[in-house]
Structures are given as structure tokens and as C-alpha cells.
Write a structure and sequence with these properties.
Blueprint lengths: L24 E6 L2 E6 L2 H4 L3 H15 L6 E6 L25 H14 L4 E5 L2 E3 H9 L2 E5 L3 E3 L13 H9 L1 H8 L4 E2 H6 L5 E3 L3 H14 L12 H14 L9 H15 L2 H17 L1 H17 L12 E5 L2 H13 L3 E5 L3 H21 L4 H8 L2 E4 L10 E5 H8 L8 E4 L12 E6 L8 E4 L3 H12 L2
Parallel strand pairs: 2-3, 3-4, 4-6, 5-7, 6-9, 10-11, 10-13, 11-12, 13-14, 14-15
Antiparallel strand pairs: 1-2, 7-8, 15-16
Helix pairs in contact: 2-3, 3-4, 4-5, 5-6, 5-10, 6-10, 9-10, 10-11, 13-14
Length: 468
Amino acid sequence: MNSPDRSLRPQAGPLSGDGAAEDYVQRHTQDGVAILTFAGPEGNRFSPELVTALTRAVVAALGDAGVRALVLTARGADICAGPHADLPPPGPVAAEVPPVLPALSALCTRIEAAAKPTVAALHGRVTSGGLALALACTARVADRRATLAFPEVRLGRLPPGNGAVRLAWLAGAEAALKVCSGASLNAAAAAGLGLLDRVTDGAPVTEALTLAGTLSLSPAPRAAPGLADGPAFRAAVTAARHSLPSPLPQHRQADLWRLEAIEAAQLLPPDQALAFDQIRAEDAARRPEARALAYLNGAARRALSADDVAPLPADITILAALTPDRAARLVPGLLRSGALVTLTAPDRDTLADTLESVAEAQLARVRAGSMTQDQSEQDWQRVAGRLHLDLSARPTVVLTDSAHAAWIAADLAADQPLVLWLDPGEDGPDLPHAARLIPAPTEPPRLCELVADDGAAARIAAALALRL
């Protein structure tokens, strides 16, 4: 049964229609190609229920004699918005392996071993289980605006679904290490590394259908181009190993295990490499650090949806009067969140120093691998400098510190949201309408105390803090 082209673009909302199932997956067939569209809670995070549903749908499609190829895609803005919360809160009882880990790995292995070609049609955020699923497919087609990432590094985990090994097979050790460090790749960068076969400005499912049909006519054995240059692979692994601290702190154990999983892609036969990676992923999930980080991540996500946080758009306008050190600490995170930041200062030298400090902080993030050069350049387009205080275009919020508070507050309207950033133990000036943010001494700041008399200012300050 053929389906109309209007279904080939990602849609919002739950699945519906004759092909919809209660288990999150919808299937329709076009020219012998089964299109499996999944839709799960919270941006298609790979919960056990979603993985079970996908497994059932994939098995059925592969066993259908009328299907010659598969296309896998998702409904909604993202293929997968992030990791599924699969760990219990921190506590004295040892954690068990989350059941979704082996289930997802088994699904990815089944897709990789399938006799019929599989093509992933990607859009939006392609992270965690969604990226693991895509790497297991025969080929990948992405919308030009798609981004690929394994954010598990920030949770003390390994990529799920044997993602580290398949990254190494496709793109080599250096690229695998970069992606496994938490770096986010845009579609062009991912294609340059060999992780995407096609990038399109149109509907990726349309391109994926064409590619799936072509692959079904001339099937080829799976290749591992990332292993082609053995010396380069070994050199990247050796350099990464030397960069780890010695002795290795306990909380960095997952960093070593990610490296070992990538190394296994070259040293071990494929089945053994996948098994080794799976063992390491399960070991990391049981560690107390992973449980603590998962709990903090969940708390942050809950805070983002709380009623006491102002629903600000991504591109809010921020007028910031900060010392160079504080600007270097705060502004890059605000820019990465999509905010438009105008830095201001009472004199030219201070403004120049502040802009330079932000630029240096951006470069440091690029060198550390926490952002790409393209992302840095995009963010820099959203920052400006202004020597003279101009409030004719009212900003969403004004952000300042003790050094600039008196200078900037004198000209603010009484209803202008003002956030005063203070160091721990710092009293700061008495500004009745300002909300005070006092961060914990971490980099980047992960916890802030919020002090405010004005409820509206407090809600805006909370939203601002969560962007950092």
C-alpha cells in the first residue's frame, strides 16, 4: 500500500490512523519500502516501551516478504531529544543495569545484521538512543539543520546501543572520541566525518526512500571505513590515553571506558567489540556518579518546566554590564542558549577587555571540544558591544554585577527586569527591584541561590540561571 507524500515530513503530536499502534510506532509502505515512524514521550527519548515497540515493528517489517527495505524516522521536532531517565536516585542500594540498555543494543544489532537495507531519516536533535539507532542503519540521510550528539559524557555514561564502537567503525578513532566527548555536530560536519550519507534541504524521508530503494537493488556488505588507516586510529587512541590524568580519579572512570570501547573497535572481532562495549556501558550505569549526575540532570529538566520560571523565548535580549572575568564565565553559555547579548561598559577600554574575554572563552570551549568552531562563529553573531548606555530598545533583562550596578541601575525604569550576579559571600548594592543570583563555585555554574522580593524578576532570573 502506497502512502501520500504529505506524510513524509515530521509531524507533531501522537501517532494516529490505521497504521498507528498503542506502542508508539506507525508503519506504512511505499514502493516496497516500509517507513517506520516512532513517537515517544519527552521528545522521543528511548524508554523501554519505545525500544520494545521499535523492536516489534522492525522484526515484523524484516519478516514481511513484501518489504525490500526499511526507513526509520520519528514524529515531532527531534529524532531523540536526549537520554532517557533510566537510573534511580542516589542511595545506598547498588543500582541494577537499566533493562533498556541491553534491549537497545539488541535492537541496533538486529538492524545492523538485517539482510534488507535500512536507512535512517534524521531531523532535529539526533542524540543518545536515536543516534545509536541511526549508526546501526545501512545509511543515514539528514535535514541540513539536524544535529548529532551523545550527551552521555555529561552523565558519566557511555553512548548507548554500542554507539562508541559503531562511531569508530564509521569515522575512525579521532572522530569517535570527539563525538563521545559530548561535542554536537551539525549535519555538514557529520557528513564530513562520514557519519551521514546525504544531507538535504528537503524532507529527509523522501531522500531516504530513494536511497533505500537503490540499496535494495544492489546490496553491499557493511564496510568499516574508520578502520582503514590503522596507524592513525592507534595514534588517536594513544594521544587520548595520554591526556587522561594519572592516577585516574574515580569519577573519571567512564572516560577511560569510553576510550577502551573505541579501541576495541579496532582490536577485537566485531561481535567481541560490541560485547565489550556493552559491558562497559552497563558498568558505567551502575556507578554512583552516574546516578548522581542523572538525578541532577532530571532536576534541571524539571526546573525548566516549573511554574516559577518565566517562559522566555530562546532569542531573548540581554543587556549585560559585567567585569571581563564574569563575562567570560557567563556570556558563552547565554549565547549557546540562543540569547542575544549586548555588552556595555562606561569606558572604551573596559568594553574592549570584556569583549576580548568572551572571545577567549569561546575559543577555550572550542579547544576543549565542548563546542564546534561553527557553533562558536554562530554564537559570536549574537553578541554586540555598546559603549554608551542606550535603553531605547528595552531588553528582556539587564544582567549586571556589583562593579557596574550603580552605574547601570540609575537609568533603568522601575519595571525593567534586573538581575544582579554576586559571588558567594558578596553583599552587593541595595537594589530593591533586582533579583540576586549567587552561584555555587563551579565552572560552569550548576547551582544558584536566588534572592528576590519581586516575583516577576525572580521568575526571569530563574530562567536566566537555567540557561547557564
